Automatic annotation (TrEMBL):
Keywords (A to Z) from UniProt: DNA replication, DNA-directed DNA polymerase, Nucleotidyltransferase, Transferase
Organism: Clostridium taeniosporum
Family per similarity comment: Belongs to the DNA polymerase HolA subunit family.
GO biological process: DNA-templated DNA replication
EC identifiers of the protein: 2.7.7.7
Protein name (record): DNA polymerase III subunit delta
């Protein structure tokens, strides 16, 4: 089992293996990895007859085997890609487990002219490949590549490559700032790059532009946390809280951010009742339209009374955190549990 960086070094050296399984949270990194294999072997032309793509959610073993067994046309190699290969998940239904067992048997007898690539996306950050029994068994026969978060220098380089591909220059300082602010997911990063390029058409990108268009990672995390509170999915909210605390072990700062977010939603909810529109919130909050629209949508999942009570809960939690000797993480978890008691 290898990570993305090791895989990338192998590709640069020209080492192409006959089978791969890619897994992780970031589909764009996985797709880039697959494209690097295609570029080194048969090219990434969608009309290439030696490239076969199979939907892993709708396939069976015979489809995969027949695709692998067919000889390549006027080429030494052919590539078979099985995307959304959810039968590789540790816990699957009976049909998926049956397909997995046949793949496991077939993996040791693959034709030398075929490169088989399978990938599936993790559900959340808690899922790890080394805890997946299926992947551990297949890793003895197929190269499992875990596309986890990239090292800082690799991460920044890949973002810079996206700007270069779009033929847009960005200064080194602005690039580093953008990398810090944007969510670490290349599907999101590519959309944010497009948005930034469109906004700064004909001129250089500044830090002010980045601040205007991109909310910080912390704000995104708090938004996700509040979304789960609205859905009353407290167990998942606790997982998100743990991730936030892992990234920034600053309980007071985090509770302040959550409280500020609820206050913002309360003000929006109150403003909507008074007849305010998106344009009004853009001016008042000094936020882009798409951010205001997201906040309005989230505010509609609460009543004013709920938001008022949630703000009070945050204030109480903040006061408790100031007391010496308390278990700060437990206080944060207790806050989430207490949100269930807040009635509409």
């Amino acid at each position: 089992m290898i990570n993305y960086e090791v895989f990338e070094r192998e590709i640069e050296k020209g080492t192409i293996r006959n089978s791969y399984i890619f897994c992780g949270l970031d589909e764009e990194i996985i797709k880039d990895s697959i494209n690097s294999i295609l570029n080194k072997t048969i090219s990434n032309d969608k009309d290439n007859l030696n490239l076969i793509k199979i939907d892993g959610m709708k396939t069976n073993f015979d489809d995969i085997m027949n695709a692998c067994e067919t000889f390549p046309l006027m080429s030494e190699k052919k590539v078979v890609i099985v995307y959304r290969a959810n039968f590789l998940k540790d816990k699957s239904d009976e049909a998926s487990n049956k397909l997995y067992k046949k793949i496991l048997e077939y993996a040791s007898d693959m034709p030398p002219y075929t490169i088989l690539i399978m990938y599936y996306l993790f559900n959340d950050k808690r899922e790890k490949p080394n805890k997946n029994k299926k992947l551990n068994s297949l890793d003895k026969l197929i190269n499992v590549v875990y596309c986890d978060k990239l090292r800082r220098d690799t991460y920044i380089k890949k973002i810079n490559d996206i700007f270069k591909l779009k033929k847009k220059n960005i200064g080194r300082i602005e690039l580093m700032y953008f990398a810090e602010k944007v969510q670490n997911n290349f599907d999101i990063i590519k959309r944010e790059v497009d948005k930034l390029i469109s906004y700064t058409s004909g001129r250089e990108i500044t830090k002010k532009d980045i601040d205007m268009l991109i909310s910080s990672n912390g704000e995104e995390d708090v938004f996700d946390l509040v979304e789960l509170i609205a859905q009353r999915k407290i167990e998942r909210a606790m997982d998100v809280m743990k991730d936030i605390l892992y990234k920034s072990d600053q309980h007071m700062l985090i509770i302040s951010n959550i409280q500020r977010h609820f206050v913002k939603l309360y003000d929006i909810k109150s403003g909507l009742r008074q007849g305010k529109r998106v344009s009004d919130f853009i001016k008042e909050l000094r936020l882009p339209q798409f951010v205001c629209e997201k906040l309005i949508g989230q505010s509609n999942k609460f009543t004013e009374k709920q938001l008022s009570e949630l703000v009070k809960l945050c204030v109480n939690t903040e006061n408790n955190l100031k007391s010496s000797g308390v278990d700060k993480t437990m206080e944060m978890e207790l806050l989430l549990v207490n949100t269930l008691t807040v009635k509409r």
